[in-house]
Design a protein that fits this description.
Layout (H helix, E strand, L loop, with lengths): L12 H52 L6 E2 L20 H4 L13 E3 L2 H9 L4 E3 L6 E3 L1 E4 L2 E4 L1 E4 L12 E2 L2 E2 H6 L5 H4 L4 E8 L16 H4 L13 E2 L11 E10 L6 E7 L3 E3 L2
Parallel strand pairs: 1-3
Antiparallel strand pairs: 2-7, 3-4, 5-6, 7-10, 8-9, 10-12, 11-12, 12-13, 13-14
Length: 277
């Protein structure tokens, strides 16, 4: 039987280069679209997590009639001239100073609590806050002898958004919320005050104090916590080669000059902006 040998044709070098070039061109066309889709997905996760944080705060308030304690002040110390936590994103630079710069700038928004402002937070359940790295709750005030010292926190007075416009919640500027004259009825009845910023971190203690709240079996056994996947809450930059000290959303509370319980008016995230409760 006569056997006919088949000649196998291979790609030439020029043909291979053409194929590689086409694949590179297709990748260059498709990659930006994939990157945009990924960024959109990250933004959606951020929005979802921020909405979940607000939901947990509201549900906790409804369940226990107060907000959870132990939120963070965003400051390294509790004193005048305090610096912001190292590693906070540039989105807060104008409001929080530059702790990591060669010529550091102290946080320009620090404000010492007055007796009534501290009472306003405490009566809303926020009787301790944290500062510095880690989770170390601090009482809003300490008394030695006849002298009472109150913590420093961050005030949102005069804050702007990323576009340089006055920050608003429910269409009202921070100044409007602080005067309390054109705000919702529940705010107007308690009058003027300050808008205080607190950082909601994954280390926040969401467990109620069973000694002072409803201890009914159907409520007292509930432990609420945050399960936030993805990019947010926003972690501070890694500055020591280990895990970031904390990650956060920013919650804005109206605290009242007359000592009435504080109320949450909104939250923000450097990545996804303002969310009204």
């Amino acid at each position: 039987m006569k056997t006919t040998a088949r000649k196998t044709r291979s790609f030439t070098l020029i043909e291979l280069l053409i194929v590689i070039g086409l694949l590179g061109a297709l990748t260059a066309l498709i990659l930006p679209s994939l990157t945009a889709v990924r960024e959109d997905a990250i933004g959606d996760v951020c929005d979802y997590n921020q909405a979940g944080t607000v939901r947990v705060l509201k549900e906790f308030k409804q369940l226990y009639n107060h907000y959870p304690t132990g939120m963070h002040t965003g400051l390294q110390t509790s004193a005048t001239g305090a610096f912001a936590m190292v590693g906070l994103p540039d989105a807060q630079k104008d409001h929080m100073g530059e702790p990591g710069a060669e010529s550091p700038v102290a946080c320009p928004s620090t404000m010492v609590l007055t007796e009534n402002l501290a009472k306003s937070l405490a009566d809303a359940g926020i009787d301790t806050v944290c500062y510095d790295a880690g989770y170390d709750p601090q009482e809003l005030s300490t008394t030695e002898g006849e002298t009472t010292t109150y913590l420093y926190v961050v005030s949102a007075t005069g804050w702007k958004d990323d576009g340089g416009n006055d920050m608003t919640f429910d269409g009202l500027k921070i100044a409007d919320w602080e005067t309390g004259t054109a705000t919702p009825a529940w705010d107007r009845e308690n009058g003027a005050g300050k808008v205080v910023v607190l950082w909601i971190t994954p280390t926040t203690d969401w467990t109620p104090d069973f000694d002072t709240v409803n201890n009914d079996w159907s409520k007292g056994s509930v432990r609420m916590s945050l399960d936030l996947p993805g990019k947010c809450p926003v972690p501070v930059e890694d500055i020591d080669g280990g895990d970031p000290d904390f990650a956060y959303y920013m919650a804005y509370f109206k605290v009242y000059d007359n000592g009435a319980p504080a109320r949450l008016i909104g939250t923000t995230c450097p990545e996804c902006g303002v969310l009204n409760p």
